[in-house]
Amino acid sequence: MFPVEIFELILDSLPLSTFTDDSGIHALLRCTETCSSLRNIVHQLASWRAHYHSRWKRNTQGRNDDKAEADWRLSYIERRISDNKVYDLLNDIVNATSAETKQEIAATIVVDYKYDPWDVIEHYSQAPLPPQLYSNPDAPPSPPDALARRFWAQQCLGALARRLGIMKWLPLTQLEAHDVTFQDVLVAFSTFFNADPSELALEFTALAQRCKSHLSSLGLFQGEDIPPSSIPDVCIKICAWMRSEGFDKPTPTHYHDLANHFPHRFLRTNRRCLPMSLVCIFVVIAQHLGLNASPVNFPSKVLAHISVPGTAGAKSSDLWIDVFDASTLCILDPNHDIPPMLVAAGLTAEQVHDVLGPAGPSDIFVRIVHNIHRSLALHPDSPEGEQSRFVAAYAVSSAIMLLHPVGPHVDSLLGFLTRFPLDLDAVLLRTIVPAIPEHSRMTAIRMINEHRLSERRGTKKRLLNENVKHYVGLCIRHKKYGYEGVILSWDPMCRMSESWQMRMQVNSLSRKASQPFYNVLTVGEMTRYVAEENIEPLRLTWPLAKRLVDSIRDLGMFFCDFDVPSDSESREGGMVMTAELRHKHPDEMAFCETLNWIHNSEDVDIMQSSGDH
Predict the structure, then answer these.
(1) Rounded to an integer, what distance in angstroms lies between the CA atom of residue 195 and that of residue 266?
(2) 20 to 30 Å CA-CA from 309: which of 57, 140, 183, 376?
(3) Which residues form a coiled coil (predicted)?
(4) What's the whole-number mean pLDDT along residues 568-589?
């Protein structure tokens, strides 16, 4: 037998574990089945730690990097077991037949498993789509419910991100904000865009480290401590370095761009941003250098404050940094520069000392909410796009709900759940509602229950409405306006109000309101109510399927797969309904199969799960 060291060297050189390659782990497992000696060698391998960190990229809360090497194998096994449970729960979400069940399962993942499931959810959300969509024959096989997997995993990941973000805000409403940082408050807003808060924290740290290396190369300080006499020069150099990295004030026309408020944007693409964002970067860098830095909630624009320690028994002194206009004047004189700024903001010079103190995270939180709300109000047609505006408004409404928990704000939040269907339980009911006062909590719970009741729509029986010509999942083109889409549901006759029918001139149609009407999810994200006589059925082709996938963000909420007819078939085919949509239309599939409108549903089994856990 080879020496133990040789076996360890060979086994440590196996491929590290990832979500797409488990060959190294499978080889180790086979080794444990050969003999007890080899099993003991595998159990003691130093590479278990590397396998763990290769598979799970993000920092896992509550885990200790200094544990003994033997424990990393057990940690790896525990995490794989946990991932398998989360994977099964994600399958349960995809296959659930009601919105309420999906919400409850998602809350289990988000609340009970905390941050740990992020990697496995992200992997699940990347289920490969059919290779025909992108003319890639070498693509991996697609599971039959790939569309639904991707959609619901992204929704679950978003709910997890938003809960993590809001949890950072909760101490701000309970006067326990001493452990919440300026960075925490701002990063939480980006979680509404599914941004990983830990990843953004690492980006801030990396930025601060780069600046520290730059300042060290200039010889501004030696060792870890900056001499008090050098602090003003260091502050000026930080601002200069930020400008060299592109962090500067925006042009007046782009001052209120939504991207300027959110770290996942201003750290990466929109570096010309607001005073709030620039000061946040400055404070993070300064604190990384060991300086006592904080924001100042100054009326006209946020400033930065540095407390300079005294030397030889002298008192500490203060510096005020105008990061936004640092290229003009970086360090402000409180007696000469700041009073005119106060007057310009509508205050008196005597109030200078009331507004120059370091701001707490609660004050900054309120100001960020105001800033984003102002951008939304001033630029209703922002180039950021309607979805970004919707998400930003959701973030503001969630923050306002924590600050002012009254009925109208609950109703406002419920309105956002049309695009965030898994947030009702995990984010609203189990994160925000417990943090508000009891009298408001009872009102919120009542309104949430009423909302859930309104979502429990009845089923639609095809056999009772045989006059309905088209079916759910059929792709269509509007005969008059030319847009494409896919049918979500139908009514045997127009169910809209008389005022809507008058506005849409329904009586001008040849069959008026007595004909079937269809809810159609269209290319461009609109849901339209279309009369049967205006519907032109489309045969589903892969190019059409690609247009639907690329342009309809919520397609996977309703459909899980593609029924594309072969060239020899005369039927139209269509999108395959999810389990929830099939539950709402219980006999739709059977009725369509009888007429050979769609492929036999047994060959398109949406309940099937494929792939390793």
Answers:
(1) 13
(2) 183
(3) none
(4) 91
Does the pLDDT at position 235 exceed 50? yes
pLDDT bin (cut points 50, 70, 90) of residue 1 is low
Instruction: Give SS3 for 204.
Output: helix
Domain annotation covers residue 492 = yes
Closest CA relative to residue 114, chosen from 182, 54, 164: 164
183 and 299 both lie in a single domain:
yes
Instruction: For residues 604 and 224, give the distance between their C-alpha atoms in angstroms, rounded to a whole number.
Output: 64
Beta carbons within 10 angstroms of residue 498's beta carbon: 10
What single string gives the DSSP state of each residue in 526-541?
Answer: -EEEEEGGGEEEE---
The pLDDT-based confidence of 587 (bands split at 50, 70, 90) is confident
Give the distance from CA 213 to its chain's centroid: 32
- The residue behind tokens 């924001």 is 295
Give residue 397's Cα distance to chain centre.
16
| Residue with tokens 């500490």, as numbered in its chain | 316
Same domain, yes or no: 244 and 216: yes
Residue 520 has a pLDDT of 97
Given pLDDT bands bounded at 50, 70 and 90, which one contains residue 58? confident
Which residues neighbour 525 within 8 Å (Cβ) at sequence distance 6 or greater? 386, 387, 551, 552, 553, 554
Number of domains in the chain: 3
Q: Which of 305, 329, 326 is nearest to 317 (CA)?
A: 305
Rg of the chain (C-alpha set): 29
Which two structure tokens, joined as six digits, stand for 396?
């503001």
**CA angle 449–453–457, rounded 5-degree value:** 155
Question: What gap in Å lies between CA 565 and CA 540, rounded to an integer?
Answer: 7
The domain boundary, picked from 399, 432, 457, lies at: 457
Q: Which residue type does 277 have?
A: S
Three-class SS of 134-168: HCCCCCCCCCCCHHHHHHHHHHHHHHHHHHHHHHH
In angstroms, how far is the first alpha carbon of the chain from the final one?
35
Residue 309 confidence (pLDDT) above 60: yes
Per the CB < 8 A criterion, the answer to whether 486 and 476 are in contact is yes
Structural domain boundaries enclosing 518: 474-595
Per the document, the length of the chain is 613
Helices (H) and strands (E) in the chain, counts: 24, 11
The reply to whether 565 and 479 lie within a common domain is yes
The sign of the CA dihedral 240, 246, 252, 257 is: negative
Convert the pLDDT of each residue in 151-182 to its tens digit.
Answer: 999 999 999 999 999 999 999 887 666 788 99
